[in-house]
Write a sequence for this structure.
């Protein structure tokens, strides 16, 4: 399964970046987009006073050091096949170091305009936060696979005895939606999830956990709610 994921999903991402156009489109552009998304509203003062900010950075020793650290991290991220916004976490403080100085430089150039930029940035940031919170609250996640798994786990934990769930994945199942993972102490866990293999190995698993109630869970279309069924233990006799 792990080999299939790397061969069919990860490999195309890697090979698409082995040319100059691919490098620019799949590495440089996503990295710039990540930086824009990370700063979001706070890019406003940076963009407005960008020429002044660049001139100040070149003259200031600590600003040059911060810019160098950012540049080194970006070079490291360019070697990564995948890029996510949280990869920029190590330079979050540096990002806002330049944002704060952009606000300061805006006030230095023109106090009234700088004050407007300061309050505009702050109010827009608060508005963006409220919109984001509202969207999160109104989002219905009840049909997501992780919520379904949590609900199933909660139901079984309220039943008597211990349980084993043997999960069979169909061809339409996405490997991103993984149901099979367990507590660290598997033998003493109330509910254990296991991946269906073949009849011989499945029966060995059933024999090992014979004191448990055995269930079968078939998952193909991730959009549908899977049905938990008693496992036909008779096939192992």
């Amino acid at each position: 399964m792990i080999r299939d994921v790397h061969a069919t999903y990860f490999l195309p991402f890697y090979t698409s970046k082995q040319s100059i156009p691919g490098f620019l489109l799949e590495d440089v552009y996503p990295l710039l987009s990540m930086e824009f998304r990370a700063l979001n509203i706070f890019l406003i003062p940076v963009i407005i006073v960008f020429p002044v900010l660049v001139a100040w950075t070149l003259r200031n020793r600590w600003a040059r050091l911060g810019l160098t650290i950012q540049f080194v991290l970006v070079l490291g991220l360019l070697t990564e096949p995948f890029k996510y916004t949280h990869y920029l976490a190590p330079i979050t403080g540096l990002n806002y170091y330049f944002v704060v100085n952009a606000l300061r430089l805006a006030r230095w150039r023109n106090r009234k305009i700088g004050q407007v930029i300061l309050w505009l940035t702050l109010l827009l940031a608060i508005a963006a936060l409220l919109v984001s919170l509202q969207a999160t609250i109104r989002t219905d996640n009840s049909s997501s696979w992780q919520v379904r798994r949590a609900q199933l786990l909660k139901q079984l934990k309220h039943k008597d005895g211990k349980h084993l769930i043997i999960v069979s994945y169909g061809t339409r199942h996405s490997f991103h939606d993984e149901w099979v993972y367990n507590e660290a102490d598997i033998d003493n866990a109330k509910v254990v999830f296991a991946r269906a293999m073949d009849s011989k190995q499945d029966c060995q698993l059933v024999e090992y956990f014979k004191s448990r109630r055995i269930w079968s869970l078939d998952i193909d279309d991730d959009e549908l709610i899977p049905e938990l069924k008693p496992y036909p233990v008779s096939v192992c006799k």
Q: What stands out?
A: The chain has nine helices and four strands.
